[in-house]
Amino acid sequence: MAWIVNLDQQARRWTGRRPSGDGIRLHEGRDLQRPVEELARSLGGRCGIDAVLGDLDREAAVVDVPATTADYGFRWDDEDFSDGEWWPQGITTSADAADTDDIRGRRVIVVGWYAKRRRGRTQGVRLSFVDITDESAPRYRHVLLVEPRRHWATRKVTMRPVPVHAGGIVWYGPSILVADTRGGMRTFDLDDICRVDGSAGRRGYRYVLPQRTSYRAVNDRGFLPFKFSFVSLDRSGEEHQLIAGEYGKKGIDNRLIRFGFDAERAALAMQEGTARPLELLLDQLPHMQGATVVGGTYYISTSRGSRTPGSMWVRKAGEAAREVREALSVGPEDLTYWPQRDSLWNCSEYPGHRFVYAIPRSRLDPDQPMRS
Question: What are residue 187's DSSP bridge partners?
């Protein structure tokens, strides 16, 4: 596996010429603060994440997850466990959000789901906020993501679903970044959460979260565009970094890329409105579903269909990647790291096999000491 490759060399390999710049970058999108404010006023004002965590309406069940490395996990309630429309994809936690692993005393897991299209339409994306402060009794609620849109005739701001796959999510500071496969990243500020009045709410959801801004993917002409299939956060170095990767069956559509964060702004590090990659990693594993980095060691989840447990791959600097077979459940998706627990977290997608679970790093790396 060829891991770190000079960007210009990689570009010549695909295009036969040296392009200008890095070839791949993210541009800061339009700030939607004004339409968000108008939408919030029309809904009676913002309520924020505290209102959601104080109004959790569903119970998850702690179970023995069918993954050989898991030491804790839960399944969704019966409706969400088997629903054929909504599919879980991305995962992040309150340990990503800040240096501590809690948000005002609560330890929280967030899972992103996308809705499959029905009759050409989709309900978009929702986030499930799961409070695991009491690990024996996890509770959660779904929040619907929406785009604020101004009607061309009335000029009134309304909302519509966010039509992306949401293969990865990262909670960083006050915001959650959601992967938009072809588009880059969309950003949602948790302070913008609004409560929807009425018995059914918006499409059955009591809370909505409008998009605040975006990071738009741009590539040089003739350069293979990067697909943001999944994302994670590396907090283990002096500079926090965004890790993004591509799902592909084989060939060159299996890359990983890294961007820096500006910790003071709690946003991607930008120069003149542009975020440029720190490195691009080529010829990665087929069927990658998630990847994260801890102290320079890569952890990558790969899937093997709807009936076979997934694998975790571990690669230390200067070494070949090592596969831990059946380490994951059937249908593994995104990965995130919880430093205070020294564990990786994964979620799985198929109906009847939907779990969220923790994997101690010591179960993946024989040289990693056990935590007491």
Answer: 177, 213
CA 2 – CA 272 distance, rounded (Å): 31
Q: Which of 87-91, 198-202, 244-248, 362-366 has the lowest mean pLDDT?
A: 198-202
Contact by Cβ (8 Å): 185, 172: no
* pLDDT tens digits, one per residue of 53-89: 999 999 999 999 999 999 999 999 999 999 999 999 9
User: Residue 110: which of 191, 170, 196, 189 has the closest Cα?
Assistant: 170
For each of the domains in the chain, give its residue range(s) and CATH number, in order of start. Answer: 26-363 (2.115.10)
Residue owning tokens 């003071």: 264
250 Cβ neighbours under 8 A, 6+ residues apart: 286
Kindly give, in sequence order, each residue whose CB lies less than 8 Å from that of residue 349, ignoring residues fewer than 6 positions away: 87, 88, 89, 331, 333
User: Which residues contact residue 42 at a Cβ distance below 8 angstroms, ignoring those fewer than 6 apart?
Assistant: 156, 157
Tally: H helices and E strands in the chain: 5, 29
Distance CA 165, CA 18 (A): 32
Place of tokens 């890294």: 258
Other Cβ atoms less than 10 A from the Cβ of 317: the count is 10
